[in-house]
Amino acid sequence: MNANPESESFSDFPDAAPAPGRTRRSLEGRLLRRLLSDLGDPPVEFVLWSGERIAPDGAAPGIKIRIADRITLFRVLRDPQVQFPEAYSAGKLEIEGDLVELIALIYRGMAKDEGRDSFGSRLARWFRSTRRNTLAGSRRNIHHHYDIGNEFYAMWLGETMAYTCAYYPTLAATLEQAQIAKMDHVCRKLQLQPGDSVVEAGCGWGSLALHMASRYGARVRAFNISHEQIAFARERARQQQLQDRVEFIQDDYRNISGRYDVFASVGMLEHVGHENYAQLGRVIRRSLCSAGRGLIHSIGRNHPGLLHPWITRRIFPGAYAPSLGEMMQIFEPSGLSVLDVENIRLHYALTLRHWLDRYRAAEDRVRRMFDETFVRMWRLYLAGSIAGFETGTLQLFQVVFTTRENNHIPLTRQHLYST
Amino acid sequence: MNANPESESFSDFPDAAPAPGRTRRSLEGRLLRRLLSDLGDPPVEFVLWSGERIAPDGAAPGIKIRIADRITLFRVLRDPQVQFPEAYSAGKLEIEGDLVELIALIYRGMAKDEGRDSFGSRLARWFRSTRRNTLAGSRRNIHHHYDIGNEFYAMWLGETMAYTCAYYPTLAATLEQAQIAKMDHVCRKLQLQPGDSVVEAGCGWGSLALHMASRYGARVRAFNISHEQIAFARERARQQQLQDRVEFIQDDYRNISGRYDVFASVGMLEHVGHENYAQLGRVIRRSLCSAGRGLIHSIGRNHPGLLHPWITRRIFPGAYAPSLGEMMQIFEPSGLSVLDVENIRLHYALTLRHWLDRYRAAEDRVRRMFDETFVRMWRLYLAGSIAGFETGTLQLFQVVFTTRENNHIPLTRQHLYST
Lengths: 419, 419
Fold this sequence. Notes:
The structure is a homodimer.
Chain A: H1 27-38, E1 44-47, E2 53-54, E3 63-67, H2 70-78, H3 80-89, E4 93-96, H4 99-110, H5 119-129, H6 135-146, H7 150-157, H8 175-189, E5 197-201, H9 207-216, E6 219-224, H10 227-239, E7 246-250, E8 260-266, H11 277-287, E9 288-300, H12 309-315, H13 324-331, E10 337-343, H14 345-361, H15 363-369, H16 372-390, E11 395-402
Parallel strand pairs in A: 1-3, 5-6, 5-8, 6-7, 8-9
Antiparallel strand pairs in A: 1-2, 3-4, 9-11, 10-11
Helix pairs in contact in A: 1-2, 2-3, 3-16, 4-16, 8-9, 11-13, 14-16
């Protein structure tokens, strides 16, 4: 899949001039050489508008980055994390070679600085997140991403319209099989039984709620603040004649009321903001009956840190991927008991590769719906996400929990794997 | 098992006087009534030296606590957490009824105050733990518990001499079967292969190290600072002719050197002290090769808090059971990636029930080795631990982790469950 998805060549990018020797290197060239050195000298070559080529000494670069003009280069050098993707989206920067591999090389080069949690970075996390995901802020943030059109998402998410990490029992599974396997994996982890009442926080287009009702006989109340998604999910419930078993509610998770056997949240935590984790824990605790159990499925990280700044700027405003330690701030203050954590990050890389394949096949249609910049921006987001999960920059945690007093828990996890 | 292990009746405990009415209640009686009320009015009756009986109104107490004299009562009222076990050990307090059930009732009654992590309690944790587990402090602490005699432990730990939570594939498994199943569960989680090099931190009497070598073909270096345990483990290695594959080293985990495919630590973290977690993480990181993986198995808690003060005073000086969030302080600063967490607390309750059965059968021999106070103290420790795991006061976490860059990880956990 996508062995070499990026081999475009624009005629305004010169490629004729010979690679200059070290003595003739320009200021721009020296700065780019320094950038490559900081990244551990990956096998990448920059090709400038002038024809000048900059690559690590002695490397045989498999990937070329063509930069259209000087202003683009200086923007990228000033703030590479944001301006590199901006320049790519605007078509001022072209990649020859595998886009995923390039981003993976960059992530691996940056990895040596990870794990340091300075006071400054903690302050930055607090500053950038505080007040973001208020009730009104969350509505704005969610609208930005999820309300851009169900038709757009339908082009590449597949039939299930599940926009979260799938679960591949084997590498040969299709995207649809893996999304259904994910839903079954979640339901088994929750020991879902006929007649169970479920509350779902952040239900997307409704696939999990409908699956729980149709395959497991559960009654589900599913919350989401995206108007477009709720409208779509309600229509699906009508088509499947599940309106009496699944209620889709356009409201914030903080307004969940009632008591349930099961709490489920797949892919919402990224939008909660870690300043709200203790409150989420209280919502869960008051929603669960005494033998209640729950599952939270979320993108995470090995250690606390902000998401990529371009992602929170262009793709997911207000989003945050917690470390497992930060996730515990949901459960520990409320006395909930964590039973099981599974990290399935490689499954998200597989899922995203399937999405990117379908997305690229649909790019002409996307271009007609939006514009070229949008097409390139989303291509970069999907490719960058693959690289994030493949390099361990991002993790995917499924956390199963229950009330402290619940002893009706399975002795082993064997039941998840008997088919 | 142990349906009613405590039905002793000492002749110096009076039982003749009728239960006095509310109007005749003594000062002692009113204080005990208040204590019961604070615990949520469990079905427990106090019987005083005077014959006075105190129980919750309207309850039919199944458990009687006989208190021998006034000085014992006032000690218990002043500091129940420490003085109740002290009085029990000294024979000044007798239990009629199930000891485990009584302690479980107390834990459940106290549970309403859990989850609050005040500044004071954080300060207390810091104060009580700091400087405890220095290299010299750890040696003293470990000597206190583990060097009291291999013969003593052999009476009730069973053939494996594994002094950690076993793993029961089914409830019918024997203690020995469950201990071997635990070792196999750990080895599978570590994907242990023939020829793998393993470093084990805190190896007890050596059962896991020997199992890894004999059943999986691994080469193991196993560290422990208990002289008695190391001597026992070396003798076992000789008997099993595994000296060339398993090296037992009497040294602190902080002095581990070399690089290994696997890091394993089963039941040592409780003695590390959370002030040393980041250092433990650095030891692990520098010990693992690039595709290295590891497992830490430890008693834990749902939220940060000290172990029971009597336990750290009499049984395990310097011990601490972390919350899962606290455990993450091992992995997150070193950029290690958590793959899997399993909470098997009910398995520890089962293990402890098997140990307590054997311990009680051996009490006469224990009494000859030590004295009556020791016999009662350890009986209470084992019974109290059962109650701790059955009420969710204590958890048992197995955490599997790997280096950030390792993508040679199993796609699913199916391999743990195929037999």
